[in-house]
Design goal:
With about 220 residues, the protein is mostly helical.
Length: about 220
């Protein structure tokens, strides 16, 4: 989810990945906002540090370990430094605040990310992309109701926003156990975005079918 933050970068996932996430609980950093363009850029790239052998200083052949959340926090802090420097002279720059939030979201620092996204939407309430990512961060922190509230506010500014409608469906389904609410959001997505690429349209249609099946089983 390149080191530069570019809010215009689209997120594209294979249809099979979208299908897989429909049948399981949301996975942090995967399910929300990646079928359609959100405010975040490509992910912050991490380079695992090779494990050194105890003798001879030769790297062991075992697989590299994933960085810890603390490691990722340090990486985000480092990458945010030049943006934070700019923020000092332009503290109400919604796009800049959005970019900083994106860095922290990409490294799973959802509390920090939510703080910057909140400042971004305070500075510009019509920043739908930032508000939608704020909703994702709230959801990842366990606040499904707060996330839905933010998504509904996003829709008041842009009723057609595909990313917002997609996330609303996922949170209603997984966070609120509301298959009918999810189906309603996704049907609205398809209705208001008739020119979706076939792959994305097919993925949403499959999610709708699965949610309807889940609803009938309740």
């Amino acid at each position: 989810m390149t080191n530069e933050v570019d809010p215009s970068t689209p997120r594209t996932w294979k249809t099979t990945q979208v299908y897989a996430m429909a049948g399981i609980c949301l996975v942090i950093g995967l399910a929300l906002g990646y079928l359609f363009r959100g405010s975040a850029s490509r992910p912050v790239q991490t380079s695992p540090v090779p494990q050194m052998a105890s003798t001879g200083g030769v790297p062991e052949s075992k697989p590299p370990q994933m960085p810890s959340l603390e490691d990722m926090k340090r990486m985000a802090d480092k990458k945010a430094e030049p943006l934070l420097a700019k923020l000092k002279t332009d503290p109400n720059n919604s796009d800049l605040l959005n970019q900083i939030g994106t860095l922290y979201k990409a490294t799973h620092q959802f509390k920090e990310a939510a703080g910057y996204y909140q400042k971004a939407v305070d500075a510009n309430p019509k920043n739908v992309a930032a508000r939608t990512d704020l909703a994702s961060c709230l959801y990842y922190q366990g606040d499904a109701d707060g996330a839905i509230n933010q998504l509904q506010q996003s829709l008041s500014y842009d009723p057609k926003d595909a990313n917002t409608l997609f996330n609303l469906g996922m949170i209603r389904l997984q966070g609120k156990k509301d298959p009918s609410g999810a189906v309603s959001a996704w049907q609205q997505l398809l209705k208001l975005n008739p020119k979706l690429p076939d792959e994305k349209k097919s993925a949403v249609e499959k999610l709708i079918a699965q949610a309807q099946k889940r609803g009938s089983a309740q």
